[in-house]
Amino acid sequence: MSEKRYRRVVIKVGTSTLTGGSVRLHMPRVVALAQQIADFMKEGVQIALVSSGAIAAGKEVLDFPELPKTIPGKQMLAAVGQPRLMNVYEQIFGIYGVRVAQVLLTREDISDRRRYLNARNTLESLLGQGVLPIINENDTVATEEIRIGDNDNLSAMVANLIEADLLVLLTDQDGLFTADPRRADSAELVREIRGEEIPKALWDGAGGSCDGLGTGGMMTKLQAAEEARKTGAEVVITNGGMPDVLRKAVSGEEVGTRILPSANKLESRKRFLLAGAKRGAFIQVDRGAAEALRSGGSLLPVGVTGTGGQFERGDIVRVRRADGKECAVGMTNYSSEEVGQIQGKRSSEIEGMLGYAYGEEVIHHDHMAITGSRTWRM
Known about the structure:
alpha/beta, Carbamate kinase, Archaeosine Trna-guanine Transglycosylase, Chain: A, domain 4, 8-stranded mixed β-sheet, 14 helices, 18% strand
């Protein structure tokens, strides 16, 4: 069905899209989006859905009470509306045979290495099982210090978390314009953005949310696009009310504004890992393991011969060969103490030795960058 092939896609749907500009969830709109997502999942595309709408659903459940626009008031509405929203998604996606899961995140879940790893592994497991993660900020517990603040930026974080190829931001506008089209008749739709920087004129012309239901606007979508494209993801900003909008966006048709990556995905990952490597922390491996890493394999405990320095689960560490040369850098699933216990063992023995397992790999190949020379020297 699609001309382009994306392995992973993050779709962010805003409140204005879910409500169709009204004050209630617009069921035909939700059904249309669900059908398109289900079609892509049948094709083998892995999709994560970042959904707003909990507060709007909460207002609907409580018959639209007049509340002060305070964080506790919004948290209360989100607590009431989130089950309603998930119930709607579960029923509608169930029509198309798609299983869904709720994932609630805060900024701490992304910034803390251990929680980052837990969130990533949860999403990886869901995607691997063909389950659609439906992600929202955990509004009911988030405070100003830890809240992300809008689902546009959350979607960019999720795209980075699962290394998505495409981020689609659905909004109530047709895309990015040279000026705010609600205020300037001369505003023109920008079809494509290339290059290292998003033009300053677009930042200047970005406006805020005008429907009173959502928290984002074009400014937050620009921020999200900027972050996502730095990690190698393509971004499409387009109108969620357009017929077959997802099919058009994912197939590469000219729809909305398409923002091309400003960095190669592999190089971006390598720079991220190298910059975050913990000083003095390393894992030493035997020759067979080093060769397996070169061939695209993961680091298994059977190939580990030792460790250096102290590190925790989620830290980025260097991988050294027996001759002391560095061959890779990556994010470890286990601490230095745990690696010391399981080194040289088979993956099937991890749970028996530790009493638990975070995975078969000490470092998964998806979260590793190969470094050093390509020749083995004794």
